[in-house]
């Protein structure tokens, strides 16, 4: 079902807002001129994920050489701080959540942009289109093109 | 050398007095030490009290042979290789030029007194740790001698932890020459031994070595030295090792929440430390209860983490003996020498790419435009 949720200009780049679509609570994120939608539900323990802070990824070519990547925005769940890429719903921290004492090694896919490894959680995402400057969310949950999924 | 013998990763030598080093000092500094009646404190400002149950560190190779090289490691394994720790210059002077001259003389003395006389010996380069530029000079001067395998830094350093940008040239030089950082107990008594200030008893000072080591390792990984120099290897000597797992658990946990402050740390901190850091066995702070000891060793995985060290002449109890006795044959062989052979002794392994060194100029870059 496609639902018009807001005007495209209601969000500035980098902003996000939670909208109610029937029984669903959905976070709409504007990254540059693209829009993304995430279920307002943290896969970790069910917290209101999209009420959390959204921020561009912090990156560093070397210690001290810090910058923000405005094209990669993460939202942090206000309950425990789990962070999710708003484009893919992917979380990156704590892959396996193994205690440090087990030193098993394995070869895992590493995000080439950040050097990070995919974590255990993926938040639900929805397809978003902009039609006549109106943001339209398709509430049929999808798994978009997540590089971790296809790797 | 046989592949089965022990590697003693930390055994001490020390000049009996400053007179031993005078022949290696330039004329100006000979005059300086005579005019000021300087001494070389054999107790290192109280690190090893003269009344402790110990003997002076060997000052000649015959004594070293008798007390260390020709005495087997616990369990009877003969010592094939011993890495000399000469820490006499850790805290002698606040004159950086004298400090540099003394370290140079100490390295000459170690070479002429020990390394030239027994093929089982390896050396640690003493450097003026408060002056990174002079330290790099001394590293460059000694690096051509393959008998030097590590660079000795006092774990109790200066007002800045070693992860600070000012020390980067030192670590770059160490990595470039395929040497190892030897982060050894004790150091500058002028800097506080704990995060809350100076200690009031020797017991606190003694205990603080492991606590300071935790601070230095945290600094090296959080401030990005280990990530920036993936070939850099660090041996923490005489600071214990059983404190490591709780530190790693806590570091990884907090990193997940506070990573934005240090975005160059792209992997859990424990991964860098597990790959790039080893710790010597003496002193071993281990549970007395045999069942608890087994549990502790399961968590620690000593075979990949711990290097045997006799730490002669310092007496720390029977922890290392109990550690070795509790291990199976393969793990015991790894702790006694196997891990040290690849991690500490294997200099000049092929295909380590040459590195471009950072300048010692202050480091400040603007954040990239958003």
TrEMBL record, chain A:
Task: Fetch the Pfam families from UniProt.
Answer: Rieske
> InterPro entries, from UniProt?
Rieske_2Fe-2S (IPR017941), Rieske_2Fe-2S_sf (IPR036922)
- Keyword set, alphabetical order: 2Fe-2S, Iron, Iron-sulfur, Metal-binding
Ranges for domain Rieske: 3-108
Q: Which PANTHER family match?
A: 3-PHENYLPROPIONATE_CINNAMIC ACID DIOXYGENASE FERREDOXIN SUBUNIT, FERREDOXIN-RELATED
UniProt protein name: Rieske (2Fe-2S) protein
TrEMBL record, chain B:
Q: Which UniProt keywords apply?
A: Lyase
The species is: Actinomycetospora chibensis
The protein in question is named Amidohydrolase family protein
Q: Which domain of life is it from?
A: Bacteria
**This protein's record includes keyword Lyase:** yes
Q: Which residues form the Amidohydrolase-related domain?
A: 8-344
Q: PANTHER family annotated for this entry?
A: 2-AMINO-3-CARBOXYLMUCONATE-6-SEMIALDEHYDE DECARBOXYLASE (PTHR21240), ISO-OROTATE DECARBOXYLASE (EUROFUNG) (PTHR21240:SF28)
Q: Which InterPro entries match?
A: ACMSD, Amidohydro-rel, Metal_Hydrolase
User: Where in this protein does the record put region Disordered?
Assistant: 344-370
